[in-house]
Amino acid sequence: MSLEKSQLYAEIVQQGRALIEGEPDLIANLANLSALLWMRLPQINWAGFYLFKDDELVLGPFQGKPACVRIPMGRGVCGTAAKLGKPQLVADVHQFEGHIACDSASNAEVVIPFYLQGNLAGVLDIDSPLVERFDQEDLDGLQALVTVLQESLS
């Protein structure tokens, strides 16, 4: 990880841990983490969470423009990440088969599933208007934040 990005994500993880430590409420924690990401990450236009409910993803706490409320499992980048149980790092969403355009200004996306007590709880979703905005360093840094979230709620 480049020093600049590694430092940014180290700070985000530290701040995220401080925000959610000792708070058992999932929605409160997701709201604070989405606000933190919105505040700290440059060149993004959406940061938030979708929650897994009744075999689909339902909009949770976020920062940015209004978004799609429900996403079927396996559809779009979020639904694919949730169904496969694997993070999705998409350089150009317009090249992603089945992409759901909640905001036509979004061009790149990173999505990371998160789990509570071993069960899928939802996904962290971050969009950018810049093609190729996210790379492996972003994915690793965001995965570290998701790990903090999972550990705090276990």
Give the SSE map.
Blueprint (H helix, E strand, L loop, with lengths): L2 H18 L5 H15 L5 E8 L2 E9 L5 E3 L3 H9 L3 E3 L17 E9 L2 E10 L7 H18 L1
Antiparallel strand pairs: 1-2, 1-6, 2-3, 4-5, 5-6
Helix pairs in contact: 1-2, 1-4
Structural notes for this entry:
The mean pLDDT is 93. The radius of gyration is 14 Å and the shape is globular. Helix content is 39%, strand content 27%. With 154 residues, the chain is α+β, with helices and mostly antiparallel strands. It has a single domain, classed as GAF domain (Beta-Lactamase, 2-Layer Sandwich). A hairpin with a 2-residue loop joins strand 5 and strand 6.
Number of strands: 6
Which structural class fits the helix and strand makeup? alpha+beta
Average pLDDT: 93
Task: Provide the CATH superfamily.
Answer: GAF domain
The fraction of residues in strands falls at 25-35%
Q: Number of helical segments?
A: 4
Give the terminus-to-terminus CA distance: 28 Å
Query: What is the domain total for the residues?
Result: 1
CATH topology label: Beta-Lactamase
Keywords:
154 residues; alpha+beta; Beta-Lactamase; 6-stranded antiparallel β-sheet; 4 helices; 39% helix
